[in-house]
Amino acid sequence: MSTLCEIRGLSVTYHGQTVPALNQIDLDIVAGERLAIIGESGSGKSTLARAMAGLLPVGAKLAGEMRWSSGQPPLPGRDLGFVFQDPSSSLNPVLTIGEQVAEGARRHLGLSWKSAYGSALKMLERVRIPQPDKAMMTFPHQLSGGQRQRVAIAAALAAKPGILIADEATSALDMVVQAEIVSLLDELVREAGMTLIFITHDIALASGFADRVAIFKDGRLVEIGPTGHVLSSPKEPYTKMLIASHRDLTTPPLIREAAP
Amino acid sequence: MTLLTIENLSKRFSSGGRAVAAVSDVSLTLEPGETLGLVGASGSGKSTLARILMRLLPADTGLIQFEGEDWLTLSGAELRRRRARMQMVFQDVLGAFNPRATVASVLDDPLRIHAIVPKAERPREIAVLLDRVGLPASYAERSIREVSGGQRQRIAIARAIATKPSLIVLDEAVSALDVSIRGKILELLVELQEERGISYLFVSHDLAVLRAVSHRIAVMETGRLVETGPMRQVIENPQSSAAKALVSAVPRLVTEPTEGPSHDV
Fold first, then answer.
1. Taking CB atoms and an 8 Å limit, are A245 and B179 in contact across chains?
2. Residue of A nearest to B208 (CA)
3. pLDDT in tens, B154-184
4. C-beta atoms of B261 and A249 within 8 A
5. How many other C-beta atoms lie within 10 A of the C-beta of residue B246?
6. Which of A46, A99, B36, B49 is most buried, judging by how many CB atoms fall within 10 Å of its CB?
7. What share of chain A is helix, strand, coil (3-state, %, to 5)?
8. What is the pTM of this model?
9. In angstroms, what CA-CA distances link A144 with A29, A88, A126, A129?
10. 3-state secondary structure of A226
């Protein structure tokens, strides 16, 4: 496995802030891995995603290094796809689904509109949009939240990027749709041999499919390692606390169960 | 005596010229001191049902009996007076408060409007409420915007219990909170229930949260109630396809190295 990106001493401070959002991060991203970045609000997990994608807002101060194996930062859209939490703000409300998914392939792969539409149709089939030919002609508001997120994934993958960053891409969806989208992302990334950076607050969600997990807190990288390793024998108290706070269908209830 | 009875409640919205049934012939009951978890996917109608119950939306047809009264026919001053007994806590707490408010004014409003305690005693009552939800009395002077999300949810709970309600509707009340804070808020809700006998209608898409606090669970799908039963029965032996899908969608903490996703989709 080769290293895709060596991150060394990376710090980010937003405009007008004194406390850095990201503080002295050292991290190697391995080509082809599925890396989960896990943290609570204010942990710096989204800042890391945005720094990697070159999407930091104007005025953000960046220190340290990101050394990409290709010698230059990936071009968003072509080399790197980005899926946001809220698909209704990342999709353009006045363009059809077909136009938005085709645009990436046209711009970055140099396809004609006609063949870009053809590949957009295939992408919509791949992300399992029902009746993809009809969906090509619809606008984002005509789709449900889960379907919009499928479209956003199709658009992010249209130019066949080598890296996909999903920033809380399933957090706004209900649990049933979340499970479907996670399994779809996992499948697409495996098939194409892409590198997936999966940003989430949900350690259990990540535990189901990530190769490695990186735990962030207050702008610092607390712990990183193979998923099974970190989950079964966490070293840091914060990781232990995150694992202990997780509730699923085997956690003892808080109520006394005798009927009131 | 049953605290709340909902019978054959229906509500339609029109969307693009079509009538869409948001809530369709729903009947359920809630006993004093009981938590009913109301679960369903997005668009299943669970929040619409909660909003009808809160009288934030009118129902098309159906009946609601609350504390022995015909709840849907109450209006004006009588409804305002009775609202003290049924309170609500929302997911987006900041959106539920006046952004310029201080913590004290947020808690003073219900005490004044419902004349819970005389004016001179209100500051003391505010301190008692803050203490009850685990916040220091000095928080009264802070702006609602300068407290953290978890603290703000505690203040929303303090506001809800200020009027001594018998029922609190919790609409995704912990969904926006970090996991480390979520458990503490759920513990607080259970403590308050044991201490005061409050009933909760807890609306959520997350069965793991509902499992922690619910005595019974009701499952909604496309406006209909498709399954109701004791918490363990619904989670361990779900009957409807909607309940089965919700159960299998809860992420499990996988601590062994795995191949592929853990979900059964």
1. yes
2. A248
3. 999 999 999 999 999 999 999 889 988 999 9
4. no
5. 29
6. B49
7. 40, 25, 40
8. 0.89
9. 34, 10, 18, 11
10. strand
Contact, A172 vs A146, CB < 8 A?
Answer: no
Contact A179 B263 (CB under 8 A): yes
Measured distance CA(B173)–CA(A14) in Å, rounded: 31
User: For residue range B195-229, what is the model confidence (pLDDT) as tens digits?
Assistant: 999 999 999 999 999 999 999 999 999 999 999 99
- For B99, what's the count of Cα atoms within 13 Å in the CB-facing half-sphere? 3
Contact at CB, A227 and B258, closer than 8 angstroms: yes
Q: At a CB cut-off of 8 Å and minimum separation 6, what does B196 contact?
A: B161, B164
Q: How high does pLDDT run on average in chain B?
A: 92
User: ipTM score of the complex?
Assistant: 0.84
- Give the closest residue to A125 by CA, choosing from A116, A136, A115, A114: A136
Instruction: Say how far apart CA B177 and CA A21 lie, in whole Å.
Output: 20
Tokens 């409807």 identify what position? Answer: B240
Closest CA to B62 of B8, B98, B112: B8
Pick from A176, A251, A256: which is nearest to B41 by CB? A176
* Residue A85 with chain B: CB contacts under 8 Å: none
pLDDT of residue B264: 43
Dihedral of the alpha carbons of A196, A197, A202, A204, in degrees to the nearest 10: 40
